[in-house]
Amino acid sequence: MTALATPTRSAARGLTCPGCRIVLDPHNGPTHAYVGASAACWELYRRLTSAPFAFERGSRLRRLVEDTYAVQHPGVPHRRSLQSVAVHLMGLCVLLERDGEQRRLVPVLGRMPARKTMPLHWLAPPEPNGTMTVADVLEVGSEGAYGKRIEAWAGGVWAAWKPHHPTVRGWLDAPCMHLS
Length: 180
Description:
It contains six helices and two strands. It is an all-alpha fold and 180 residues long. A two-stranded antiparallel sheet has the order 1-2. 28% of the residues are buried.
C-alpha cells in the first residue's frame, strides 16, 4: 500500500492553522464547529482518518489520532470546546499512561448512580502544542510506519500538556469516573 499524498506546505502564500500552527496552502473546504483547525489542516485530518488502511473505530491508533488532533486544535474557551479538550486529554492519559484501561460507572445497589457533573474548566493550551502535526503523520513513506509516527505525535502532544497532567488525572480519578 502506498503512502498518502504529502501535504502542500507553503510559507510564502500559506495560512497558519490556529491549532497546530502549521502553514499550509489555503483551502476552501469545511472546518469543524469547535475544533480550532484551519480548513486545510482539517482536510489533512479527514484524509488520514479515511485512508485505505484507516484504523478501525475504537482501535488504539484511531483513538490516538482523534484524541491527539482534538487536543492539538483546542479552539477557543467555550463549553463545547473545553468539554472536547477535557475528554480527549483524558483519552490520551488513559491510552498513554494507563495502558488503555476502560473506565465506566459502577452500578450501586443494582442501579446506576445519578450522573454527576464533572468540574471541567478551560485549560490554557501549551505553546508549542507538540512538535509534530497531522502532516508529519501523512508524510510517512510506508503503511507500517504510520503506527510509530502516530504514537510519537500523540506522545509529543501529551507531553506538551504536562502542566495540566495533574488536573487531567484528577478528572479521571474523580468519583463519577470510578473504575469498575
